[in-house]
């Protein structure tokens, strides 16, 4: 006879937090959102990989590339670069993140000396950047011959066919520095010589980076940026259970700090085999998360298999239709609560703390706080990050509003069969995700800052200054459908911004 869970399966939207006592020390500025991401002996050692904010971006084509990884690391989180691409392309994305120096910019506006003023103006229009590097071969890392800025030409008085070699600031007249120069040293040179930018070159005069006055200031503002021991941004990468023998070594060589098996269902021998391969080849030096699971049994299976963290959630994503297609899944809140309890029991028995990640089910910002209070160490988000400038998808105008494209890994567009493979034909048998749009929301920095300000404020309402403290002190209540309605605006007529004001 089939086993039946007697408890109803609940989502985050069915719960509310009940306020607790807040001391005068409970202010948002005192809240720490630092959290572990891989297993460790809690109370005996420091976690080898931590985050400064409890947010990671989903392993999806429409969410996580190298641009997203850099932007999120600047805020203190980790992006898991999508694995539904060639091994070489994914490794290259990881390498670009690891080679990116905070405050150091690889030039994206490059020309040869033979380029005309008209071509320079067209390039400026395309990139939005007024500083153009003139290199021998027109590449970002070619031999530097000069720099062109808007101060070097006057459009109204020059022939558009004039070559850059005739009006550029030549190399011998430039102020530059070797590529070994630190960011602080570069900034000192910029201010001493009243420059807007400083080229950094190698011993062969090849351009490596540009340091801009504005970028140094921006770098100093990112107090929570997540760096490794070599002062490089931390980045994650997705893998699958099919080509891991080739993909894992390439990603490790590229510098990935943590891996994650991307699968719709993690309670499987395939995941155990993948983890076993990593442990046999690398021991515990390579960190790998696994999932997804929705109950105690699934968590224990992966924890005992050697997973560094376990991901929770099946069917709760905004574009996931696994529940509709297969009838497989569980309410995200119920899943997190049960797995968190299993994690704590496992820790008491073994002394090893295995962090858990809530993946899916986040509709409102306050759901983040609920997920953390229920026991999640960090949260994986797809739709949330897909809305930002830094996601790899196009911004389009739909019915007068700007939107961003967003599609699931189980959609016909992504065709990520490895994520849903159960050992059959190497193809996507049917869709488990949709192709969609999400409202454009602007920059990652602004939105993450706003969301986390809500999390910090709510934690203070609960009398907690750390995520661990929140999990100990939080008090939650199930709410009725009427309570949910009452929680939003009701029995009022919202003001229309176009309506005339009455005096």
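^ structure tokens above, recovered residues below v
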């Amino acid at each position: 006879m089939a086993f039946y869970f007697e408890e109803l399966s609940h989502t985050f939207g069915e719960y509310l937090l009940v306020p607790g006592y807040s001391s005068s020390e409970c202010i948002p500025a005192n809240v720490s959102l630092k959290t572990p991401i891989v297993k460790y002996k809690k109370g005996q050692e420091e976690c080898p990989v931590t985050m400064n904010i409890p947010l990671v971006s989903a392993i999806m084509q429409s969410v996580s590339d190298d641009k997203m990884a850099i932007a999120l690391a600047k805020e203190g989180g980790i992006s898991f670069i999508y694995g539904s691409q060639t091994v070489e392309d994914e490794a290259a994305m990881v390498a670009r993140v690891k080679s990116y120096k905070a405050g150091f910019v690889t030039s994206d506006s490059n020309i040869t000396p033979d380029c005309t003023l008209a071509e320079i103006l067209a390039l400026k229009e395309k990139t939005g950047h007024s500083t153009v590097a003139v290199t021998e071969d027109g590449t970002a890392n070619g031999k530097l011959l000069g720099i062109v800025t808007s101060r070097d030409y006057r459009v109204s008085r020059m022939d558009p066919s004039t070559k850059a070699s005739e009006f550029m600031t030549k190399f011998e007249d430039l102020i530059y520095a070797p590529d070994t120069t630190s960011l602080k040293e570069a900034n000192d040179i910029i201010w001493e010589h009243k420059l807007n930018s400083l080229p950094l070159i190698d011993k062969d005069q090849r351009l490596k980076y540009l340091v801009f006055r504005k970028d140094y200031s921006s770098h100093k503002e990112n107090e929570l940026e997540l760096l490794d021991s070599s002062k490089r941004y931390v980045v994650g990468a997705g893998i699958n259970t099919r080509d891991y023998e080739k993909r894992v070594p390439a990603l490790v060589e590229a510098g990935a700090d943590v891996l994650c098996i991307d699968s719709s269902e993690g309670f499987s021998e395939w995941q155990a085999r993948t983890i076993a391969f990593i442990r046999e080849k690398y021991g515990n030096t390579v960190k790998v998360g696994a999932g997804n699971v929705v109950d105690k049994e699934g968590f224990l299976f992966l924890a005992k298999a050697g997973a560094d963290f376990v991901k929770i959630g099946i069917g709760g994503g905004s574009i996931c239709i696994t529940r509709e297609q297969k009838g497989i899944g569980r309410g995200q809140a119920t899943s997190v609560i049960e797995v968190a309890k299993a994690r704590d029991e496992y820790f008491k028995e073994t002394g090893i703390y295995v962090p858990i990640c809530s993946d899916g089910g986040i509709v409102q910002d306050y759901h983040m706080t609920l997920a953390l209070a229920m026991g999640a160490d960090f949260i994986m988000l797809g739709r949330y990050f897909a809305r930002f400038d830094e996601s790899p998808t196009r911004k389009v105008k739909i019915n007068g509003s700007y939107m961003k494209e967003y599609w699931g890994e189980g959609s016909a567009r992504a065709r990520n069969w490895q994520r849903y493979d159960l050992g059959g034909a190497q193809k996507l048998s049917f869709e488990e995700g949709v192709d969609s749009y999400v409202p454009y929301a602007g920059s990652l920095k602004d939105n993450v800052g706003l969301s986390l300000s809500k999390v910090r404020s709510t934690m203070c309402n609960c009398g907690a200054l750390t995520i661990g403290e929140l999990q100990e002190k939080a008090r939650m209540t199930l709410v009725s459908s009427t309570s949910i309605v009452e929680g939003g605006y009701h029995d009022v007529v919202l003001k229309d911004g176009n309506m005339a004001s009455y005096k």
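Residues 82 and 96 are 14 Å apart (CA to CA).
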